Amino acid sequence: MLATVTSAVLIGIDGHRVGVEVHVSAGLPSFTLVGLPDASCREARDRVRAAVLSSSFTFPPNRITVNLAPTNLKKTGPVLDVAVALAILAASDQLDPHLLQGAAFLGELGLDGRVRPVRGALPLAEVLNGGPLVVPTGNVGEVRLVAPEVRAAVTLRQLVDSIRGDSPWPDVDDQPATECCAGPPPDLAEVHGHPLGRLAMEVAAAGGHHTLMVGPPGAGKTMLAERLPGLLPDLAESEALEVARVHSAAGRSERHGGLPRRPPYRSPHHTASVVALIGGGSNQLRPGEISLASSGVLFLDELGEFPASHLDALRQPLESGRVEVVRAAVSASLPARFLLVGATNPCPCGWAPDVRCRCSPAQLARYARRMSGPLLDRFDLRLHLDPPDPSTLFAGPAGAESTASVRQRVLAARLRARHRGVSANRSLRGSALEQHAPLEPGAADLLRDRVDRGLLSVRGTMRLRAVALTLADLEGRDGPVTVDDVLLAECLRAHDVLPGTTA
Amino acid sequence: MSGLPHEAYLACMAGLPQVGPSTLRQLAALGPPDQTWSRLCAGQVPLGVVPRHATGPEALRQAWERAAAQVDPSGHWSRLRELGIGVTSLGCPGYPVSLVDDPEAPVVMFHQGDPSLLEGTCVAIVGTRRPTGYGRRIAHQLGSALAAEGISVVSGLALGIDAAAHAGAVGAGAAPIAVVGAGLDAPCPQANRPLARRIAATGLICSEVPVGVRAAPWRFPVRNRIVAAFARVVVVVESAVTGGSMSTVEHALQRSRTVLAVPGPIDAGTSAGTNRLIADGAGLCTGVGDVLASLGRSPSTAGVPSEVRRRSHPEGLAGVLLGLLGWRPETPDYLVHASGAGLREVIVALDWLTRHGWVTQQGGFVERLPVAPAPMAP
Fold this sequence. Notes:
The complex is a heterodimer of chains A (503) and B (378). The longest helix of chain A is centred in the C-terminal third of the chain and has 17 residues, at 403-419. Chain A has a 5-stranded parallel beta sheet with strand order 11-14-17-10-18. A 4-stranded mixed beta sheet of chain A has the order 1-2-4-3. Chain A contains 22 helices and 18 strands. Chain A is elongated and about 90 Å long. Chain A folds into 2 domains: 2-164, Ribosomal Protein S5, domain 2; 188-410, P-loop containing nucleotide triphosphate hydrolases (Rossmann fold). Helices cover 36% and strands 16% of the residues of chain A. In chain A, helix 2 (44-54) crosses helix 3 and helix 21 (458-474) packs across helix 22 (483-491). Chain B is of the alpha/beta class and 378 residues long. Helix content of chain B is 41%, strand content 12%. Chain B has helices at residues 6-14, 21-28, 33-41, 57-70, 73-83, 97-100, 133-148, 161-169, 193-202, 219-230, 245-254, 272-279, 288-294, 317-324, 332-339, 343-355, and strands at residues 86-89, 108-113, 122-126, 152-155, 177-179, 204-207, 233-236, 258-261, 283-284, 359-362, 365-368. In chain B, strands 1-2-6-5-4-3-7-8-9 form a 9-stranded mixed beta sheet, with helices on both faces. In chain B, strands 10-11 form a two-stranded antiparallel sheet. In chain B, helix 7 links the parallel strand 3 (122-126) and strand 4. In chain B, helix 7 packs parallel to helix 8. The radius of gyration of chain B is 24 Å and the shape is elongated. Chains A and B meet through helix 7, helix 15, strand 18 and helix 22 of A and helix 15 and helix 16 of B.
């Protein structure tokens, strides 16, 4: 007898609909799984058999063939377990096949018949929309974002009872939104001193400008970077859904109920592999850190310790905002619109250009070479941070502006950018920049002088102009970019912050 | 093989492993260099000339034998000819006069450029490879002022003070002389190669290290004795107490050369060595006049830049900021904190100070300038 159940598998961050066809026929008892399953998917045979028996059903002592259609698509992971089990029950007359028609099932089975949550339930649910959908209880929170009518499965026994109508579908208690489980984000008011660093964070948040901070250990680079996400505006509906989709596909949907409203913040360690950063893997194509940080902040601490090849792999996603991960059998397009913040020591010992620095000129040059020119060029803001003056440390909380009040200015600046047709000023190029960032005569002279003296490239001039425009936006000022804006932007874009780059 | 000059064999010997100036001198003393070379190839040099080495003299002699088998003196000689490198050896005409009665005279010298420069007056400018802006500026000024006085500047073509002094001297008058610690095919760090080409074109680059031998740390202090021997006066611009420049000073004192030191801030590690030298009796160098005085000359009236560039006096916040800047680099953050003014105002005032030649801004640091820099060439 034949039965078909609908389910889905994940590639990258996209779900693909899969039909699970089971044929039970007379013959010697056997259980064959075909249709390009990978190792973890093939193991479904053993899990399903044990779960069916543990749930007091009969495992048919016949010849069982399971086909996963379409057969050219590679299936990975245990997400099809529940569908296979139900199809076997239906094909062996233990469940009416008509009850399964039009419905879709996701879930991994435990040997005791329990239904376990799966990775990527949200994108999987999106592709299965249209009919009744049953997912493990642990996935209900995220799936509700796209399929409000979703039903939960706790065990295989309960699932079959509910399908038959013998018992009601289990209530999934509406777990309250636990967004604040991570505690309140760090506040900018806790940062003493660092006027330039604070301004850089504000400008980075308002204009989306990638930022590089160079300074000795303990200067406060990480502290500032951690406060950047708090300055960013809330995620828009579409952005939030994309963030939820990526995080679901990576198996890190911790928040139940409600879309993530705050931009993500990722800070991978410098030993991360290039696949962990960019995304990939042999046949699953999991999203990497740059996709997890999409619409948020990617903070690379100790940038100088990352292998140069890893850093250069960031260049293309930085330009395009997406990353196409391609392998022989599969490919996926993943979002990568992140705000890059790098922090590094100026040299291996950390103290250059201070006299305390014990590094040789060759060491300095080698350290600076790790960051290729093209990558450095993509940092609109580059600043040197020194530890703040000791007297500011104990000055008390007075004076330092809080995240909330800085964010007001950032939101207003982002609004101005949106009126120009971009999400942030960083995206302004060429003629759009000419149109939206007119220069005061003095400011134009200043830029021309810098180009004449070889301090700025033409491309650098454009980036400087975009930063100057963001500075004017933060002041809430219309009209042309002033000399002050350009000077301040120049100060935020020191061209030789890495001591080894100059002879 | 006969017909090759002695220098060809000496050059090959100098390129053998673990051969420094003193070993080479002993090898040269064994007899005619072509015969000594044959003995080296046969592994028959007396163990007495083999230097003490971790592997033992027997092993090193075998290493020499293996290395010598790889080298063809006539090929090496023609390579030198192709590169346009001149060779002189101790006792031959053309050997630098200032080295002839030196206690540690190099047996063989390679040079590129004009060896007659060594007959003129030479002054060495040495210092740390990691100078401050101050040291770099002073070295550059001294280099160009001495060159304008017709004095050849001798230095080591290393990064930092050496390069600044050479860069100041090139094209300013008398051509500079570089004494390097590596083979002349790759005489200096990559960053200084353009400078080295300019010196080779007008001045002189010389070395006792044969072509094809890379720089090794032990060769630099050894090289410094030649710098000291060439110069009549050695000026130390910036150096830590244990810097490599101190070895040049020692060699200079052994050879009765005058040593001058440029003083610096007492809280700067880069000037600790020079301040210590002054305390220990070295001459004080406060400008090119002191160097000329120690040579027994007075500044010629013609070449000295006499134009004083006037700077407008800073007012308001700019004046306050200038008062806050000591003689060490500070960040704008510090100036904001210390002046109590807003970041925007501080940046604008710093721009005014930069434009009027009071400060220079580099790599996120602000540094005060004692005199206005020369106006930019159009």
